[in-house]
Write a structure and sequence with these properties.
Number of helices: 11
Number of strands: 21
Largest sheet: 10 strands, mixed
Oligomer: single chain
Shape: elongated
Distance between the termini: 20 Å
Structural class: alpha/beta
Strand content: 25-35%
Bound molecules: pyridoxal-5'-phosphate
Length: 362
């Protein structure tokens, strides 16, 4: 009934989670569902992750955590983003775990918890290299002690975040790991020490510790295809909306960024940058029609773009795959990220709610 739609393969999502689970030993599994579950749909993905039996979910914004609680998710939820004072009531009342990364934030959180007669579950963030949020390792002990000694806090975890763990034998990653491990050794304590993102899960088993926090990997995207059972779960399909023959030497789409060399057949696909299909794909990406790749010609418009099918046949209403599989061909996120000179995560989170997501269980 739609002219363009996403398919989210839930069975494969479970397989991805199982593959991750089988590689992390006794570590707990925190599935990162921030940014609309990397574009896959926050609530349905969180529900499936809960059904699978992950131990934790992580989001960035407080409101993402609120949305999950309102949808009935009862798993522990870690809100990774730094909170504002005005957000504390939501965090505390909805039992969302949050991050303490300075003594100032610890003070205001403890004060509000006291007023509400509550105890907050918190994680202390250590900066081992991102220089984004978190206390430096040399100040970690003092902050951890402060949190542990305050009856308004339940210290659930201590964590840090990798800079470049997608690379094997990466010197920055090894340095961060060493710094975090030596802090763990020094401080000890019975809380969850966590560090591994997707790259850590795949390439640095020593970083798995008490809990892992993969995002991208859960959605089946890994640049080196390092875990064979893991596959992307999202595909984007559309139906050809128009067919025309264009003569030699004619320009196509806004600004005529492409000009035909010879007479050719052009089909129009009803997806554009208004849906999150990036304009960077203009004249670069291909789509699949009848199991074959065909190039986008001219600029991607807000709602549609054109594809040159040469001498091939294709009819209005036929299925086009913008990414995913068709017959023996596949278009991957890594390829799209390369075309747009960005990270596959950015390709994924760019998609908005305009094109519906269809969740298939088999
Ligand atoms: C986004 C994020 C993750 C997940 O990262 P991936 O590389 O996608 O696995 C884990 N931890 C933190 C703190 C994050 O911000």
């Amino acid at each position: 009934m739609y002219s363009a739609w996403f398919e989210v393969n839930i069975a494969q999502f479970h397989k991805n989670l199982a593959a991750i689970r089988s590689r992390i030993g006794t570590a707990r599994f925190c599935c990162v569902v921030k940014a609309n579950a990397y574009g896959h749909g926050l609530i349905p993905i969180a529900q499936e992750a809960e059904r699978f039996g992950v131990d934790y979910l992580a989001v960035y914004h407080v409101h993402e955590g609120v949305t999950l609680r309102k949808a009935g998710i009862s798993l522990p939820i870690l809100v990774l983003g730094a909170f504002q004072e005005t957000q504390l009531d939501h965090l505390i009342q909805l039992n969302l775990e949050f991050v303490i990364s300075s003594s100032f934030k610890a003070k205001i959180a403890a004060q509000r918890a006291l007023e509400l007669g509550a105890i907050c579950s918190v994680h202390v963030e250590i900066d081992t290299g991102m220089r984004r949020t978190g206390v430096r390792s040399e100040n970690a002990q003092a902050l951890i002690d402060l949190v542990q000694n305050n009856p308004r806090f339940h210290l659930k975890g201590v964590f840090s975040h990798f800079v470049s763990a997608e690379n094997l034998n990466d010197s920055i990653t090894l340095y961060q790991l060493e710094e975090f491990l030596s802090l763990k050794q020094k401080v000890g304590g019975n809380c969850l020490w966590h560090l591994a993102n997707s790259g850590g899960v795949v390439h640095y088993p020593d970083s798995h510790l008490d809990l892992v926090r993969p995002g991208l990997l859960c959605y089946g995207v890994s640049s080196q295809n390092s875990i064979p059972e893991i596959e992307p779960i999202l595909s984007l399909k559309a139906k050809i909306s128009y067919f025309k023959v264009v003569r030699a030497g004619e320009g196509i789409s806004y600004g005529h960024l492409h000009r035909t060399v010879q007479q050719t057949r052009i089909v129009t696909v009803p997806v554009g940058y208004g849906d999150g299909y990036r304009r960077d794909f203009s004249n670069k990406m291909s789509v699949l029609i009848r199991g074959k790749r065909h190039k986008i010609v001219g600029a991607v418009c807000m709602d549609q773009f054109m594809v040159d099918i040469g001498n091939e046949e294709a009819y209005v209403g036929e299925e086009v795959v913008l990414f995913g599989k068709q017959e023996k061909e596949e278009l991957s996120f890594v390829e799209m990220a390369d075309a747009a000179n960005t990270d596959p995560r950015e390709i994924l989170v760019h998609f908005n709610e305009r094109i519906p997501r269809i969740y298939s269980k088999n």
